[in-house]
Amino acid sequence: MSGRRDFLSMPAPENYVAGLGRGATGFTTRSDLGPAREGPSEDQIKEALAKRAAQLGQAAPTAYGAVEKKEEDEDEDRFQDPDNEVGLFSSGMNYDKDDDEADRIYQEIDDKMDKRRRARREAREAKERDEYERNNPKIQLQFADLKRSLGSVTEEEWAALPDVGDMTGRTKRAREARLAERRSYAVPDSVITAAAGQGELNTSIDTSDGTTTNFASIGAAQKSALQVRLDSAANAGGTQTATTTSSGTSTSVDPRGYITALERSQANGMQAPVEDINRARVLLESAVKTNVHNGPGYVALCRLEELAGKMHTAKKIIQKGCDMCPRSIAVWEEAIRINRDNIHNAKIIAAAGIAQNPKAIKLWQAAIELEKTVNDRKKVTRQALDHNPQSVELWKTLINDTDDLEAVKMLFAKAVDTVKLSEELWISYARVSEPEQAQQILNAARKAIPTSWAVWVQACRLQEQLGRVDMCDKVMERAVKALIKENAMLKREDWLKQAEICEEESAPVSAASIVKTTVGWKLDEDDERRDIWLQDAKDSIARSRYETARAILGHTISIFVQSTTVWHAAAELEKNHGTLEQLLDVLERAVNACPKSESLWLMYAREMWQASRPEDARNIIARSFSALPGNENLYTRAVDFEVDAQEYDRARQFLQLARQTAATDRIYIKSAVLERQLGNLDGALDLVNEGLQTWPSSWKLHAIKGQIYESLSKLKEAQEALSLGTRANPKAPVLFKLLARLQEKAGHIVKARSTLDRGRQANPKNEELLCEAVRLERRAGNTSAAQQLMAIAQQECPHSGMLWAERIMHLESRTQRKPRALEAIKKVENDAQLFVVVARIFWGERRLDKADTWFTRAVVHDPDFGDAWVWYYKFLLQHGTEQKKGEVLSKAILAEPKHGEIWQSVTKDPRNFKMGVEDLMKIAVAMAQ
Q: Could you tell me where the Basic and acidic residues compositional bias lies (predicted)?
């Protein structure tokens, strides 16, 4: 045991001051000084000083070294006497009358200057004081107006003040007691386990210590947990809405079932429990008793009694409310509503309510609704208008009850003359009138309401209805100028909404005019106007307002004529939501405005070719050659057109011309592939060799050369060609894969393994080479080596969907596939290959709905992945309907997938280049294993 003291018992270090490190200020107390004691005497001090001076050889000083005070020193108190001034102030003169007069004059000057500044100073101080009191009001100032108003409170109002409620915790304690009665406890797991085990076969194994392990229940529990987790993973990132299956594990919502359940719950909610009704009745009765003039309280209590089925009580309560609150419109409305079973009583109540509130429009409307005949309704409405001539709602009610058109016009004329500021009445009046008269009405409305934009919009729509399309733009231009002058211009977004409303109401020309004149409102040239307008057009397309979007893009094109982005947006709009003529017209204008845009030329030629107009497509390609000479993309597109038309000689001519004018490795690849597809392997080999002389590092040319030799059954030459390619371009993993497969085909497993090792060294962390190495070992029967390589591969590429798919489907047992799939989905959030793997697992378990959901998710997430379409089509061939198969096949054709091992091996086979997508899909389905 150490002999070192405890830290708190140790003495403090030298010069330690407590609290000094944290900034505390020290102070000295009497306890620090100690008890008082008598010091040395004066004689002792003098003796000590003399002794010290003798040792130093100096004269003996006085006590403490102080010089004795001389008697002739002047007293300092003399400076306190003004009559005894010496030194600088010793003038020898006394205070006389001149000094008094000077002081008086200075005082008068000071008073006059102070009086001159007093008004400004007092105003400034008052302003500062008011500002301070306004920012920091006192409580008595805040309630000063309320205190003053207390003087006008009558005795009846004082008597009507409610009593203070129970502020104790009685209500809280009662609520806690009710909750305690309803409290429930979780059932122990032992009870659940015992209940679940009843009636089951005993599949447990007795152990030495007497415990049992039920493997069947553990497996079922794990399977259920994995099922739920996979369902949650499917619904977390997917975009498809899955229907609820019989298993009950899907977390997606069936909209129809949800709405049905919601309606059922609402219907059940109308039947409130008795205790809730009683509790609410006590509260509401207390509310109306404490304040007998509480109109909403009577309405609420009436509806409560109606809910409880006591209609007679409800009517009595609301009648009392009418008596106590004669000025409450809500009470009279409720009384009319609840007495509608007796029309006569309802009319009497309505008449009484109107007599108390003749300006209440709602009561007049309720009285109108009680009438059965049109004439009676008109009679009541006219009486209402006599009391409320400015009510637009009453005028509309009277006009709607009138059938004669001439009478309607007369009523409108009277209405707009009475209510001059009602846009709705003016516009409705114009709509029911003749065109010429409508113009006059709108002009009068414009003068009556100069700030109304709705009148201008109606005027523009009127011109469109009359067929004066050219006048629409002029009307909107005048509208913008007039509204700017009146400072009543709408925001740009609001104008676009009005344009969409016009389009919805079949006024596309007016919509276009509104867009043309207002889409640039308050947008400067230095703003990103193009991006803003493109986003506006995109939003309108999303709301299915294509005419508005077309007008926005048209205006954008007029400003940004040479912007290919805008032309592409306009072309996509016409392609998806327009006609072929509109699309071709937009593309013609686009290539004329942007002749150097390769993408516009290619799009124009493709659309023309798909429209079954090959000659026009060829003319467009010829025009593009003049605008963009030597462009390889244009040559390849021309070759594709001729190949599709089976004009192979013409395609060869294009390729020969391209090799002469725009020679690139891609042109040589295209030429070699065409010759290989046509069966001219020698010509293809010559083209490849010619291309390699100029581009020796083009890995595609080396790959084509090796594949040609393989087609000719010259495996040695093929291996040499691919080996040369790996040395010329070691960063091409495809060459190492092709070479390793050739060596494996020749039976040289060791060489194939070595080739893949070299490829992995040259291309570290490449999932294709890692996966190919694992497959090589698996095909050779070395399962343990394949698993070891897979472990290394997943360490290098932990987020590779290809490696996870290979592991799950080929290196895991069937019972472990689903757990591994869940782990893979957590590591790789969205990968089409993994989605296909999970779908195949459910397919194997005969969970067809789940499999269909995951296949759909795969093709939606990555439509370019051809293998997903292949496996989905294979699944539908066994379990799908003809309609579903046709739908998936048509979507695959539109998607035009380019990637996928199975899909690429089929589409790039020279023997299949003339086949359609359906035939290619059948061949790929046969290869999918």
A: 39-50, 122-133
* C-beta neighbour count of 333 within 10 angstroms: 20
> Residue 70 above 50 pLDDT?
no
Minimal CA–CA distance to 758: which of 775, 773, 741, 780?
773
Instruction: Tell me which H or E stretch contains 617.
Output: helix 614-627
Query: CB atoms < 10 A from the CB of 183, how many?
Result: 6
The rounded mean pLDDT for the chain is 81
- Percent of the chain clearing pLDDT 70 (strictly above): 79
Which residue in the block uniquely carries the two structure tokens 């429930």? Answer: 184
Nearest-angstrom CA–CA distance, 375 and 371: 9
Do the strands 212-213 and 205-206 form a parallel or antiparallel pair, or are they unpaired? antiparallel
Phi, psi of 306 (to 5 degrees): -65, -40
pLDDT digits (tens, 9 = 90+) for 857-890: 999 999 999 999 999 999 999 998 999 999 999 9
Token pair of 327, please? 């000025």
Structure tokens at 485: 């002058």
206: phi then psi, degrees, rounded to nearest 5: -70, 135
What's the count of helices (H) and strands (E) in the chain, helices before strands?
49, 2
Using CA atoms in the order 562, 564, 566, 570, what is the torsion angle rounded to 10 degrees?
A: 110
Which residues, in sequence order, are bridge partners of residue 899? 865
Q: Give yes or no for a contact between 458 and 442, defined as CB atoms under 8 angstroms apart.
A: yes
* Closest-CA residue to 776 (of 802, 812, 813, 751): 751
Q: How many other C-beta atoms lie within 10 A of the C-beta of residue 903?
A: 24
Structure tokens at 807: 């592991």
- The residue type found at 723 is S
1: confidence class by pLDDT, cuts 50, 70, 90: very low
As to burial, measured by CB atoms within 10 angstroms (0-12 exposed, 13-18 middle, 19+ buried), residue 859 is buried
Question: What are the structure tokens assigned to 36, written together?
Answer: 């008082």
Strands (E), 148-262: 205-206, 212-213
From the list 245, 254, 231, 228, the residue with the least C-alpha distance to 848 is: 245
Burial class, 273, CB count within 10 angstroms (exposed 0-12 / middle 13-18 / buried 19+):
exposed
User: What is the C-alpha to C-alpha distance for residues 512 and 515, in angstroms, rounded to an integer?
Assistant: 5
CB under 8 Å to 328, separation ≥6 — which residues?
A: 295, 296, 321
d(CA 497, CA 486): 21
pLDDT of the residue at 518: 92
DSSP string, 770-808: HHHHHHHHHHTT-HHHHHHHHHHHHHH-TT-HHHHHHHH
Query: Dihedral of CA 560/565/567/569: which sign?
Result: negative
Rounded CA gap, 371 and 349, in Å? 14
Domain annotation for the chain: domains and CATH numbers: 830-929 (1.25.40)
pLDDT tens-digit map of 525-577: 766 889 999 999 999 999 999 999 999 999 999 999 999 999 999 999 999 99
3-state secondary structure 556-603: HHHHCCCCHHHHHHHHHHHHHHCCHHHHHHHHHHHHHHCCCCHHHHHH
Q: Which two tokens stand for residue 67?
A: 């010089």
Among 729, 749, 731, CA closest to 741: 749
Has residue 98 got a pLDDT over 50? Answer: yes
Tokens of 76: 């300092």
Dihedral sign of CA atoms 45, 50, 52, 58 in order: positive
Element (H, E) at 456: helix 453-465
Residue 769 CA to residue 753 CA, distance in Å, equals: 11
Is residue 679 a contact partner of residue 711, using CB atoms and an 8 Å limit? no
- Tokens 């106590």 belong to which residue? 324
HEC letters along 143-180: CHHHHHHHHHCCHHHHHCCCCCCCCCCHHHHHHHHHHH
CB count within 10 Å of CB 884 equals 13
Read off the tokens for 17: 């001051």
